[in-house]
Amino acid sequence: MNASTDWPRPITADEARAVDRYAIETLGLPGLVLMENAAINTASVVLDLLGDTAELDRDAFRVGVLCGGGNNGGDGYAIARHLLGFGIDVELFAAKPVDQLAGDALVNARACVRLGVRPDACRDAAEASRCAERWSAYHLLVDALLGTGFKGEVRHDLAGVIQTLNRIASGSNPGPQVLAVDLPSGLDADTGQPAESTVRADTTVTFVAPKAGFNGPAAAAVLGRVVVADIGLPDAAVRAALGV
Fold it and tell me: How many Å apart are CA 16 and CA 111, to the nearest integer?
């Protein structure tokens, strides 16, 4: 499982979308394939963060995955499925009901449900508070709520979920690690400006290349360590997608 890429510079949110379009429209790779590659590489990073599982019982590890309603949430469902395959105890939390999802996110969410892992509703501060006691006992929380398309301020209900996640991660000793998928939810991929409610990650697994906003002075406080994971494309294909 390759969790690195040699692409030499940060990319914007539009460029990230251009890479996806090139892979799908020019190379003929379904979006599900890209999501699958991103997910298995992210799950590999999760295993590394959990420690030397060759010497520990993987059943002892507990991971919570918070999934939004778009493709970032789809990544989260796919990551959860791979972690289940690795023998990790995974629970899912959904900011949008599965029957309201579409496209690749719906495919991966339904797969998790059919595997017996039905997500708990986590749409606002009240629902997040009901989950919080479980979160505090987890080894790691995966933030797959918002992706590179986010701009501005987080809507009120989801802001409550993010605030609860941050409170749990920082409030216990030791608290669960937080891993953000592609970027911390609430961070603007291009400007690096965090919204008022932004996930504070310990590790960010970003796809293809760091995002342009990661160099912003305010971004460092929420990104944590940045790991670049590939989605199954060689650098030559990324260059072709971006015309460089």
Answer: 26
Q: Of 185, 204, 198, 202, whose CA–CA distance to 42 is shortest?
A: 204
Its pTM stands at 0.94
d(CA 72, CA 2): 20
Q: What single-letter DSSP state applies at residue 37? A: H
Cα distances from 216 to residues 145, 187, 211, in angstroms, run 21, 11, 10
Enumerate domains of the chain plus CATH numbers.
13-49+56-242 (3.40.50.10260)
Mean pLDDT of each 10-residue bin along the chain, 244 residues long: 60 96 97 97 94 57 95 98 94 97 98 96 96 92 97 96 96 85 98 98 97 95 96 93 90
Give the max Cα distance, the chain: 49
